[in-house]
Amino acid sequence: MQQQDIHKFLVTYFEANHCEILKNHNTYLTVQLTIEMDKELMNRPFYWHYLEKTGGIPNPSQLTFITDSQNAPEHIKGEHIYFGSPRLHQIIESTKKLASYIRLYEDKQTNGQQVSLFPWLNLNVKISYQCDRKKDIFQSVGLNLITGEIVNEFYNHIFSIKLTPKIPDYSFTLSPLIMPKSGLTRLDRYIRQNFEQDDHTWAEQAVQRWNNDLRLLEHFYNESEEKSESYYTEKEALKAQYEPKIHISIVNGGLFYLSDYKTS
Amino acid sequence: MKIEITSDLEWSDNFLTKINEDGPWANWELYKLAIEVTKDLVISDFEGLQAPKYLPYLKPLPHQLEVARQVVEEMNGKAILADEVGLGKTIEAGLILKEYMIRGLVKKVLILVPASLVTQWAFELNTKFHIPAVTQRKSYVWDSCDVVVSSIDTAKRKPHSEIILNQDYDFVIIDEAHKLKNNKTKNYEFVQNLKKKFCLLLTATPIQNKVEEIFHLVSLLKPGHLGNAKLFAEKYKGKGRTIQEDQHLKELVNTVMIRNRRADTKIEWTKRQVETIIIDFSKTEQALYDAVSQFKVHSDGVGHSSFSTLTLQREACSSREAVYYTLKNMKAKYENPPVAFTAMIDNVLQKVNETEQNSKAEKALELIKKIDDKVIIFTEYRATQLYLQWYLQQNGISSVPFRGGFKRGKKDWMRELFQKQTQVLIATEAGGEGINLQFCNHLINFDLPWNPMRLEQRIGRIHRLGQEKDVMIYNFATRNTVEEHILKLLYEKIHLFEKVIGELDDILTKLDIHNIEEYLIDVVGESKSEGEMKIKMDNLSSLIQFAQQMKDGDVHAAAGHS
């Protein structure tokens, strides 16, 4: 993330959360938080609890973020935001938390004609390969809940069309033949199949390292008839360190009602 | 091969609930933002360091980055970091910890450090690495906080120890880990029983004395790496071997240990200037020294002991207070001391009373005034420390004491006082480790320890990364005393003070002198004449010089191959 990206990210985040941007200079940014966003970001539960008990006038914070420390005017006081700064990562986490589940309808120009919308189930996932090291893969998939068709890089499509949270006039939704619950199962299976063909030497190598350390451990304790507690602790620790695992974590997902989206 | 795969079931359940309850649904802009930022932050390689990108203000040195990479990629996150003093082991450890935290491999962290460094570690992790480390102050911290810094002495005590041993730590860091070289200690046992998925042991002096010590240290990190205790003992004990001599052992150790030397780092260090100041006793001081030199009595009251004579002689070179304190303790051991013993002690005590001045203290005062800047004075004796503080105070110079026994808060406070308010810090040996004072560049060795490694540690407190000025070291020694012998006959001959830090460690290990302090006491104490002592000292210093040449020879040979 470059500094300009960070600036843009912050503006989008606060606007989407209905916070007024009081100043939007290209080196810094001042935001008036709403009550909800103050509770989300400022970590002062006692203040809000007290206020609600006493019926005082809420005074949500104003924040200034300096996104270009080198060029920002000197008199500006605020938090320096850069990649790695705790505040930025707090806001990134908050973004993910606040945007977990969605339902949207395609807003198509219809000229008064009726448009039927197909239900799609979208999942955006992070697949983590983990042993004593770790790497992630991002995957975005969509499942047509009528035809059962599955599409990769689904986000590319939805990013390019106009969507609205309310069903538009003249549009109607087709009922899914696949229920969301089994849709989730299908997508989970699809994602798993996808990486089953992957090269998993990483996991084999991790098991090798694990076995190697286990062998040393056995050797170290082989004189004592009864294994001491530290032996078992260490064995557990080796498992935690090396055991290869794959975890699919869902970033977000939801239902999209789309007109005639075809991949082929 | 079969790999365990897990999915996010909680998300699915919540999603189905939302469908049933018709929302609430997220905002489209935020949804897009979450996807974009996730794509941006995905770490698509097992290899490579992420931490530097997250720490744009840190500016780690090349050797520190290399250490971090090596530990993560080649050592599977378990290593002994053994850089020489002052190369920034804390930075290395912070980088490694940060890397694992960014990648989501580490959440729960325990950091055990000397009490005097607890606050500093927590502060550095927070400010330099944005790692929310907390210092342990209440026992609930163990459960409720993810990254905790504590002293090992606190952690091993009940009720803390029980809580800690029940935690699943992803990452354990232990600073000054050479203190864990003895596997019979409570501290060792405690650390052995910790669950350590990833682990760093930090020490500047990994191989001070015996081969077994490195065995215990490595076994803590990776049990079995050097075999088990029995086999190891059979193979290496009693053969007078050292780590350096055994190529195989050396290679094994090097797969779990990284040691950078100052010379390898290409960092420009400030210079070290050493000045020896020889001080003459006053008449009464000389009388005291002569009296203790005649004091050939074992501390149990009978027999001959060069040890107690030497102790008293060394103390007499420091202050009469130090002598007094030791005599008092000797006497207090008995309910009915033997008459001859009491007479001998009383004789010396009388000389203590007659001593009118402390010539070294006078010299120190003069020097401090001349320096007119921050000065650290090191002494071996607490009694001297107290005396010096009083003496400087009488002469209008403010000072703070520093001792190993101080509680953490007090150590921090003393350091702070020294940095902000007082001109002088007076430290005893125990205070030598675990405090960083690089804002000061003058050091007075009021008396000399008989272990050159300890001298190195003293100097290492100020001659480290972050020191911007040349470091000035003033060695005090009293003329015609044991102190002068050690200084002139050994330390100066082997150019101890000009050596770069860490070199000596190597040399002593090469020589296989298990305990140089005992050896020196033997040489100085047991020699029948000054001539004999000189010869022995000469032998020792040529041995050290020889080892040094061998070492340089090694370097040349190695360079020749590449």
Could you give a short description of this structure?
With 264 residues, chain A is of the alpha/beta class. Chain A has helices spanning 3-16, 35-41, 45-54, 86-98, 154-159, 180-196, 201-221, 229-242, and strands at 20-24, 28-32, 62-66, 79-80, 101-106, 115-130, 134-144, 150-152, 163-164, 171-173, 245-258. In chain A, strands 5, 6, 7, 8, 9, 10 and 11 form a seven-stranded mixed beta sheet that branches. A four-stranded mixed beta sheet of chain A has the order 1-2-3-4, with helices on one face.
Walk me through this protein's architecture.
The complex is a heterodimer of chains A (264) and B (562). With 264 residues, chain A is α/β, with parallel strands linked by helices. Chain A has three domains: 3-98, no CATH class; 101-200 and 246-258, no CATH class; 201-243. In chain A, 39% of the residues lie in helices and 27% in strands. In chain A, helix 7 (201-221) packs antiparallel against helix 8. Chain A starts with a helix and ends in a 6-residue tail after the last strand. The model of chain A has no long low-confidence stretch (mean pLDDT 91). Among the domains of chain B are: 51-261, 3-Layer(aba) Sandwich (Rossmann fold), CATH 3.40.50; 272-277 and 357-479, Rossmann fold. Helix content of chain B is 50%, strand content 12%. In chain B, helix 22 links the parallel strand 13 (442-445) and strand 14. In chain B, helix 16 packs across helix 25 (516-526). The model of chain B is unreliable at 554-562 (pLDDT under 50). Classes of the chains: A alpha/beta (264), B alpha/beta (562).
